[in-house]
Design brief:
252 residues, alpha/beta
Length: 252
Amino acid sequence: MNEHQSKNRLQFFDEMAANYKGRFTNQFPFLFYFYNQRLVAACSGLSFHEETRLIDYGAGTGFLYDYLLSDDYSLSNYIGIDISADMLSQSNIPIQQREVGGLDRLKKQQVQDYIFSLGVTTYMTELELVEFLGIVREKLQKDGSLIISFTNKQSLDFKIISTLRQLMPKQWTRKQSLGYPSILAFSPTEATELLAKAGFRINQMIFLNQTVFPLNRLFPRLAVFIAQRFLSKSRRPFWSSDFLIHASIRPQ
């Protein structure tokens, strides 16, 4: 990613920062459902104690921090990294546990038990993602876990959005992820192969968000009802806009 692209990405998130956190409350059922589903999946099977060291890469406005705090986990060794200072300023993350930057900040961290990257790969380039995985491999304990989510290119939701992004005027999608210039997406097989090539072993894959655009925006409560009632247990990639992987370092 060149300097111009980096500045555009930073501007994109800075402009959304002030109102971003409010979009993921009960007042917005679809986004509330999706983010909480992802947080539950991300923390599933993990244990947190006073000495647990974790990095939240792409911490944004602190959704993971708030979720862990609500369960009374010890967060003294939590570090939230984000390219947008404006995003971090909207979070409850203590100032001394925030770091503004990207891969440059990740490289400077100590070895961690858990490294989270939730909703971040979507806005990376492939080269950035490969570099990120290489750094994570160096910064993760041998028995630690990488928890990382991906946009699912095989999903009905992605196929519809990809088509509409080509047809809709830019001003309609401005300040929404739908309007981000370039979306990086993977199939579950592609993500598995990418992680394997980087030296990781897949321990668990969880499919997320069984709602579909534009129903989830026009009739969010109905979309969430259908997803929870009929589609949430489906392991067919077609119905899930995203998926999340728990991975660990593959033994040599």
